[in-house]
Amino acid sequence: MRSLEEILRAVDSVPDYYGHKATSVNYKSGWGDTPLHIVSCWGDCEAIKILIEAGADINARGETGFTPLHCATEQNRIEAVALLLSLGAEIVQDSNGHTPLELADLLERKEIIKILSGGI
């Protein structure tokens, strides 16, 4: 199992974090994304669990109002979507008024639509 520090160092390598350093689990990049947003985009379930256990805000909003659940949905990270929901992620609207379910529908993410609709 990786350490929290290893995960934060990996997040620091993302272009969104250039010129920034993820110093905590809720640190926001210049775009407003937290480390949990980044690892959710990657579909890294181990890192998601570690960050949440360390106190990451599961419903943190990035610049466009995306939550980690929106990020996992957009990137078609099926296991990450299911994990985030099981850990208490809320289905909320982004700045454009789209929920992760509506985003999944727009992007034709059939498996994620099932999960977000409660049909796991």
Structural class: mainly alpha
Helix content: 40-55%
Distance, first to last CA = 27 Å
Low-confidence stretches: none
| Strand and helix order | HHHHHHH
Biggest sheet record: none
Shape: globular
Counted up, domains total: 1
Mean pLDDT: 94
Annotation, overall tally of beta strands: 0
Q: Briefly note the CATH topology name.
A: Serine Threonine Protein Phosphatase 5, Tetratricopeptide repeat
CATH homology superfamily: Ankyrin repeat-containing domain
CATH architecture heading = Alpha Horseshoe
Describe this structure in words.
- This protein has a single domain (4-116), classed as Alpha Horseshoe (Serine Threonine Protein Phosphatase 5, Tetratricopeptide repeat), CATH 1.25.40.
- Helices cover 47% and strands 0% of the residues.
- The protein is built from seven helices and no strands.
- The radius of gyration is 13 Å and the shape is globular.
